[in-house]
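Hey, I was hoping to borrow your eyes for a little while. No rush at all, and the record is pasted right below.
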Amino acid sequence: MLALLAVAGTAVLHGQTAGAAAPDLPPDIVAMLTNPAAWSGSVTLHGGAGYKDNLLLSRYAPEGSAFARAGVEAFLWRLPEGRTEAYAFLNAEDTRYRGGLEVDHETEAVAQAEWRYRIGEKLRFSLMGQGYWLDEVFDVSDTDILRTVALLQVTGVAAGPALRWDFAPQGWLETKGTAKRETFRDGSNNNHLYEGEVRLGWRPADRLEASLGEIWRERSFDHRQQYSAGGRPRPGTRLHIGEEETELSLTAKPGRAKHWKLVTRAGRLTYADNGSGYFNYREHKLAETAEWTAGDWLVRLEASARRLVYEVQTVGLGAAPPARLKESYATELRVERKLSARWTAYAEYTWERSRSNYTLAAYLMNEGLLGVQWSWEK
């Protein structure tokens, strides 16, 4: 229903009446759209139980455990009033492991709000603010000197503007700027991040959209040091990281029945430090999402693959040891069955595999989950 409101609300923002935008809307939705102070919102509560066979993402003697998981998703949207609109959402989830020895829980929470202002018919300015808290096991082998996984507590805040220009009926251009601050419980990876993005989009048809984005990131660490090409710290230095990423995205909804939604993302990234290049690597990645909906059923399959090649780091001994390599693969399957207007049952399966010629950075993980969710909308 929120998607329906968004479409009709956009029409109201452009100067059309709710009836003209969508003459078959239910009376309660028409009333919300014609009331300039109207709000729309939703709340979803979910809970379930499952099993994860590798809590610490370890290659040797993986630790498995049954778990219970619960979470909440809340969304609040102020319908368009004149040229402005706003929304906010909160996602929080907590997992408790029954048999975990080194890790007994994982928790994450994300809150975000955005205010939008339309300038004429083709320009839209927005301001975003975000906060998050993570208490999870992370694979930090990509960027950390230890080349391993870690249980980390991370607090972050981010904010920034964006400007979107709909320069043609089929085309749009968007620019974003974001400043972020991350702090870790032990303080070792505290950093400031600045990000800029330019994205060009094209909609040749209602069921097809493509976009090409270029993203730049600059990250400055408070305490981390540069490393020599041989892997030794350089006292008195501070580590800075520069990233440049290119991403191509394609979204398609094939078939007249609109049961399917397909999203493909492909990209490349260069990661470079301000020292010897010890942390430098090149990354290529590909991700695919296929979603099918019909009646009370929803099936979604997500798959991704990424390959990292390091420029300076090597593995093994000898006169010419090979460059360090890492490949990561992940698949997630979710099946939902709507039981009533508010209740839904779901099942999830997640598979992850990390391969590397540095053996400590390789692992295999499987997770299965059965649960139910309750939803409310206004």
